[in-house]
Amino acid sequence: MSNANENMNDWPSHGGRPEQLLPRFGLAGDSEVIDFSANLNPLGPPSWLPERLAASVAELARYPDPDYREARDAIAHAEGLGPEQVRLTNGGAEAIFLAVALLARQGVARATIVQPTFGEYERACRHYGIAVEPLALTGERFMLDEARAAGAMRDAGALFLCRPNNPTGTLIEREIIERLLVAGRRHGAMLVVDEAFVDFVTPDERLTPLLARFDNLLLLRSMTKLYAIPGLRLGYLLGSAAAVNAIVELQPPWSVNALAAGLVAPLLADRDYLARTRAWLDAERPWLQGELETLRLNVVPSRANFLLFQNARRREARGGSMPALLEHLARGGILVRHTHHFFGLEGAWLRVAVRSRPENRALVEAIARWRHP
């Protein structure tokens, strides 16, 4: 066994980084692996996308429209909003940083982040000098303590949550969201909800309709997960017209390139791709969850395209710890997501994306070999 459990701060902070993770186990960083560590749609980008990109090369010789009107109009139409409520961003990460920049401009000094979750909320808050307090999800099913969350809306200037949450896949009920928004409006607090994975959820769970009733709600979106285009960096932010107008002043000009911006309308128009994705996930996720549970793993019920699991018994003798399983899988050509950087998880859980049936079966068989060497 390697010393892979040492120096936890040196673990890669995001999935999809085999060149950083594999050398920890003495493996070549360019080794061929099945990558379950990044939560991308295994269907791959829509089939028409390469030809569309090739036809758009001429756009590289021109500056993009700084207001991205065509893209904003397409998003607004898809979401039932006015274009003044939409801002295109350089991936979901820029949407997060712009939301926090707005909070800082409004004088927010302290924010609460529902944990464990994506690390960029805390990173953005600290970048802008906003103090962070964690609000831990509770139990092995990672439930939100609504009373404590309401208290955070009273005592802090903002509450951040991911819905469905990364890495747990859990989804906080819409009724709870509405009650938190009411509390926040009463106390002048903003609710920032990252909906990066909401397109994978059936039935539809987007919070967009709440924007008509609550001006203290910001929604963050990523188009890279659903359409499997992380290299293009494409996302957007939704909010009240006043909030979005303020964010326009905080965003660097032309932060989204012309090729990415030109894809927004055709991506949103491809309803068949979305339907095929949801049909695949609705069949494949329960199959993979059931197979993992058969191997005596505790799997968190997920509404997203990934699953979080650990040993059903934390002191399970056969097989060993989750870091040991992580290394076993890596040595067998399967990369999964460690949890060393997630608040409260600290390596005791693993997260896997749901992929194709042959790939998912390879994962299950590799775990079975670990269980019964």
Commentary on this structure:
There is one protein chain. With 373 residues, the chain is an alpha/beta fold. The protein folds into 2 domains: 8-44 and 273-371, Aspartate Aminotransferase, domain 1, CATH 3.90.1150.10; 49-269, Type I PLP-dependent aspartate aminotransferase-like (Major domain) (Aspartate Aminotransferase, domain 2, 3-Layer(aba) Sandwich), CATH 3.40.640. The protein has 13 helices and 12 strands. It has helices at residues 18-21, 49-55, 69-79, 91-105, 120-127, 146-155, 174-187, 224-227, 241-250, 258-269, 271-294, 322-331, 357-371, and strands spanning 34-35, 86-89, 110-115, 131-136, 158-162, 190-194, 217-222, 235-238, 297-299, 306-311, 334-335, 350-353. The chain has a 7-stranded mixed β-sheet, with helices on both faces. Strands 9-10-12 form a 3-stranded antiparallel β-sheet. Helix 3 packs parallel to helix 10 (258-269), helix 4 crosses helix 5 and helix 6 packs parallel to helix 7 (174-187). It is globular, with a radius of gyration of 21 Å. It starts with 17 loop residues before the first helix and ends with a helix.
What's the structural blueprint in terms of helices and strands?
Blueprint: H1 18-21, E1 34-35, H2 49-55, H3 69-79, E2 86-89, H4 91-105, E3 110-115, H5 120-127, E4 131-136, H6 146-155, E5 158-162, H7 174-187, E6 190-194, E7 217-222, H8 224-227, E8 235-238, H9 241-250, H10 258-269, H11 271-294, E9 297-299, E10 306-311, H12 322-331, E11 334-335, E12 350-353, H13 357-371
Parallel strand pairs: 1-11, 3-4, 3-5, 5-6, 6-7
Antiparallel strand pairs: 2-8, 7-8, 9-10, 10-12
